[in-house]
Design goal:
heterodimer; A: 75 residues; alpha+beta; Alpha-Beta Plaits; two-stranded antiparallel ribbon; B: 270 residues; alpha/beta; Rossmann fold; 10 helices
C-alpha cells in the first residue's frame, strides 16, 4: 500500500500563533514555536515533521493563509 | 537531523504542492485578530473566485465593521457602503451591470442591526446578488458590545450581567427570516471552525456564486463565526464555545434551496 508523506511550510512572519492549525492537525505534527516572529507571536511550525501526512487540515482552518502544504506518495 | 532535512527537501517541491494561498488574495498580512473567522471566509471567497475564474467580473461591497478593509485583501473590484447599506449599493451595481457577479460581505451589526431594512427588502425584491453574513453574536470592531444576535445570558461590554430578555429582547435569527422571503434563492448557514466545516462552507459559497450567475434570486450564506477578542477567549476556546452555545440556536445547514419563484412556506431541514 502506498504511503503518503507530507510537509507544511509556514510563513512565520504572517502567522499570528492562533493555535487553530495545531488543534486541527490529526497527527500532532504542528506546534507553536518557542521563538517569536517580529510581531511577537509564537508562530506555528512542524514539531514532528516525520508524522505529517499532507492532509491540508491546517491550511483550511488557517485564518491568515500562511500555510502551504506538500504531499508525496511513496511506495 | 540532516536525514529529516533531506526528507523535507524531497517533499517540498512544486509538483507535490496540494495547497497554497489563493492568487486572488493580496500578499499582505490581514489586520484581523489572531484566529478570527474573517480570515478564513476571505480565503474561501478568494478560492471560489479563483476556481470559477471570475476575478475580473466580480464586484464586492464591503460593510462597516471589522471587514471594512476587505478591499485590501481580496484582489477584485470593491465598493464601500455606508453602515448597513451594502445590499442597497449592491442592488444598484447589479442593476447597472447585470453581467457582473456582485456580493456583499457583512457582519451581524451591519446586516442584522442597522441594515435590517436594506437586507430584508433586497432579498424580498429577489436581487441577484450574493450576501455573505458573518454572525459572531457581538459587535467586534467597537469593543464587544451586544448585537441583535447576542445570546440570552451572554456577557458583553454593554450587558455585563448577561443579555436579559426583558431589557434587551430575544436574539435575532435573521437567516430564518430571510429564508421565508420569496426572493431568496439559496439560504444556508455554515461555519468554519474545523477543516470539515471549512470544506462545507467553501462548497456553499461556491454554490451561491454559481447560482447568482444564473440570476434566480438572492443567495444568502451565513457563517457562524467567532470573535475571540470580543468574547475574551483564546481562538480554540472560542471555537468550543461557539459549538456549545451558538450551534443550538443557530443550527448549521441549508435553510432554502431553489429559485425565487418558490412560494411554498419555508421548511427547516436538518
Amino acid at each position: 500500500m502506498a504511503k503518503v508523506i507530507g510537509a507544511v511550510v509556514v510563513d512565520a512572519e504572517v502567522c499570528k500563533g492562533c493555535n487553530l492549525c495545531v488543534v486541527s492537525c490529526p497527527t500532532q505534527t504542528l506546534g507553536l514555536n518557542r521563538d517569536v516572529n517580529s510581531k511577537g507571536y509564537h508562530y506555528s511550525y512542524m514539531e514532528n515533521p516525520e508524522s505529517c501526512i499532507g492532509c491540508s487540515n491546517c491550511s483550511s482552518v488557517c485564518p491568515d493563509s500562511c500555510i502551504t502544504v506538500y504531499r508525496l506518495k511513496v511506495e | 537531523m540532516s536525514e529529516i532535512a533531506e526528507r523535507l527537501k524531497s517533499i517540498i517541491r512544486p509538483e507535490n504542492q496540494v495547497y497554497k494561498k489563493s492568487s486572488v488574495l493580496n500578499d499582505v498580512t490581514m489586520h484581523y485578530c489572531p484566529g478570527c473567522s474573517h480570515g478564513v471566509v476571505h480565503k474561501l471567497i478568494a478560492d471560489v473566485i479563483e476556481e470559477l475564474g471570475i476575478q475580473d467580473q466580480t464586484i464586492g461591497v464591503s460593510p462597516v465593521g471589522c471587514a471594512v478593509f476587505a478591499y485590501n485583501y481580496i484582489d477584485i473590484d470593491w465598493s464601500e457602503a455606508a453602515h448597513g447599506r451594502a445590499p442597497a449599493v449592491a442592488t444598484g451595481i447589479k442593476r447597472i451591470m447585470p453581467e457582473k457577479t456582485v456580493f456583499t460581505y457583512q457582519g451581524d451589526g451591519d446586516l442584522a442591526a442597522i441594515g435590517t431594512a436594506e437586507t430584508m427588502h433586497a432579498v424580498n425584491r429577489g436581487e441577484n446578488i450574493v450576501m455573505i453574513f458573518i454572525n459572531n453574536a457581538i459587535y467586534g470592531m467597537t469593543g464587544g458590545q451586544m448585537a441583535p444576535t447576542t445570546l440570552l445570558g451572554q456577557v458583553t461590554s454593554t450587558t455585563p450581567y448577561g443579555r436579559n430578555v426583558d431589557l434587551n429582547g430575544y436574539p435575532l435569527k435573521i437567516t430564518e427570516l430571510i429564508a421565508q422571503l420569496p426572493g431568496a434563492a439559496y439560504v444556508t448557514r455554515q461555519s468554519v471552525h474545523t477543516a470539515g466545516a471549512v470544506r462545507k462552507a467553501r462548497k456553499a459559497i461556491k454554490k451561491a456564486f454559481e447560482l447568482s450567475q444564473k440570476n434566480i434570486g438572492t443567495c444568502f450564506v451565513e457563517v457562524v463565526s467567532t470573535c475571540n477578542s470580543g468574547w475574551k477567549m483564546t481562538p480554540v476556546e472560542s471555537n468550543d464555545w461557539m459549538v456549545k452555545q451558538m450551534f443550538p440556536l443557530f443550527p448549521l445547514g441549508d435553510l432554502k434551496d431553489g429559485g425565487k419563484e418558490a412560494t411554498e412556506p419555508f421548511q427547516m431541514k436538518g
